[in-house]
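hey so u asked for the seq, here:
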Amino acid sequence: MKKTRMTSQRSKILEYLRSVKTHPTAEMIYSALKKDLPSMTLATVYRNLNHLAKQGEINKFDVNCVSHFDGDMSFHQHCICCECGKVKDVFEKEITSNTLKKIKLHDFEPKSLNIIIYGKCKQCKTSHKE
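ran it, structure tokens below
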């Protein structure tokens, strides 16, 4: 895939994503950056996020039909609560590396994968017990 130039807005979006651990939506990113980049529109944020995801610079995944973004490209997994939609990082490198090693395809060499574990977070689990 052809790389394109890193615009100042794209750079700020990427810098923001790499500085947070919250898996924000495009709207959250827009709200966080609009003070520093007043000319930037929400459409620009969406376009740049989709471009960065397509280029492999960030991860994009959906929670309850809403796209979330992650600037941490290290091997890790995501746990998503089916009740509240909370996303938590899990850093079990072996899960990803072992899975990649076990994939044996004659006409395809896997480079990465996205593992999402669905379940119930501690808070939702506790609130249902009461």
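The chain has five helices and five strands. Residues 8-70 form a domain with the Arc Repressor Mutant, subunit A fold (CATH 1.10.10.10).
lmk if thats what u needed
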